Amino acid sequence: MAQLNMVQAINQALSLEMARDDRVLLLGEDVGRDGGVFRVTEGLWERFGSERVIDTPLCEAGIMGAAIGMAAYGLRPVPEIQFLGFTYSAFEQLFAHAARLRSRSRGRYSCPMVVRTPYGGGIKAPELHEESTEALFCQVPGLKVVVPSGPYVAKGLLLAALRDPDPVLFLEPTRLYRLLREEVPEGEYLVELGRARVARGGNSVTVVAWGSMLERVLKSVEGYDAEVLDLLTLNPFDSEAIVKSVQKTGRLVIVHEAAKTCGFGAEIAATVAEEAILHLRAPILRVTAPDVPVPLAKLIDHYLPGAEQIRNALDEVLQY
Q1: Active site residues
Q2: Do both 222 and 281 map to the same domain?
Q3: Are the C-beta atoms of residues 237 and 194 closer than 8 Å to each other?
Q4: Is the distance from CB of 249 to CB of 200 less than 8 angstroms?
Q5: Domain end: 184, 207, 236, which one?
Q6: To 5 degrees, how large is the angle CA 228–CA 231–CA 235?
Q7: Do 35 and 125 fall within a single domain?
Q8: pLDDT grade for 1, boundaries at 50, 70 and 90
Q9: What transmembrane ranges does the database entry give (predicted)?
Q10: Which end of the chain is more exposed for a tag (fewer CB within 10 A), N or C?
Q11: How many domains are contained in the chain?
Q12: What is the distance between the alpha carbons of residues 35 and 210, in angstroms, rounded to a whole number?
């Protein structure tokens, strides 16, 4: 099997599904001739043509609205928003229409589309280019939120998302685009949405992470008897896997790069408190970014959770 990075794995998934299903089309700023801002769609315009790989104006609300119309009509659009921070101008389209179309029409229409967008910090980019506000999108029922953590799962999750009958927000960790290489099968395979995976077995403490934080967590837990869960899907998230692990270990540390207040870690903590509180041997700890706007390049490394913070949290719950 070839060793691919995440950019190549996602490109391969898009190419496979476009070849398999002629209803799939891509649209967004620079996705065609230029192959996308991170070159994720490189070569697809040449292969499938300008009617299926569409360069759009710089208008996120327009991109999202057009994609929703295409999906309702029966196509399977894949709109790309260049950075998660740029989706804010398309909130109304995504929340009030895409996520509600099936319910609003009492099942007569669905909205099978996948919104791809890079997210997260660590690339030292300008303002709004390193946002990690994934919890905002988990609030509205009807929208699935998926976050891959490496090339293999990125391809399988994207193929599964592309075949889902409802809208999926596919968050691609920018820092991981070319950081990791993994063996990725050339053909198609699916990674089930809504299921976490055990990235590392252990018995003394459960650590839950997703996206680019998984790579940081796996390095940080060396020397600890820690079980690491890679969430993969945030909405709906695999509460059963988390509760099962906490029942075994008795301790829980949650790591995410979003701000702490109302971050998705709070939902995980509340769920464990409701369903497994009698199994806890220590308080649930969250290792997160501080409650401040994402800083510019010189401070970003101080803003994101680091190995020292993760290990301090592990020590605290283990010594409780």
Answers
A1: 129
A2: yes
A3: yes
A4: no
A5: 184
A6: 160
A7: yes
A8: confident
A9: none
A10: N
A11: 2
A12: 27
Tokens of 205: 């403490």
In-domain check, residue 191? no
Half-sphere exposure of 244 (CA within 13 A, CB side): 10
Interval 74-92: pLDDT, tens: 999 999 999 999 999 999 9
Query: Looking at residue 282, what DSSP letter applies?
Result: S
Residue 314 has, within 13 A of its CA and on its CB side, a CA count of 25
What SS3 state is found at 209? strand
For 57, counting Cβ atoms within 10 Å of its Cβ (0-12 exposed, 13-18 middle, 19+ buried), the class is: exposed
Residue the block writes with tokens 């101008």: 89
Neighbours of 31 (CB within 10 A): 27
Mean pLDDT of 170-192: 97
Residue 5, token pair as written in the block? 């990075």
Question: For residue 140, what pLDDT band results from cuts at 50, 70 and 90?
Answer: confident
Please say whether the beta carbons of 68 and 27 come within 8 A.
no
**If DSSP codes are grouped into helix, strand and coil, which group holds residue 120?**
coil
Query: Residue 198: phi, psi to the nearest 5?
Result: -85, 110
User: Which of 147, 152, 88, 160 has the alpha carbon at shortest distance from 116?
Assistant: 147
Report the amino acid identity of residue 249: T
Domain that holds residue 129: 2-184
> pLDDT of 212-227, one tens digit each?
999 999 999 999 999 9
Rounded CA gap, 55 and 46, in Å?
Answer: 13
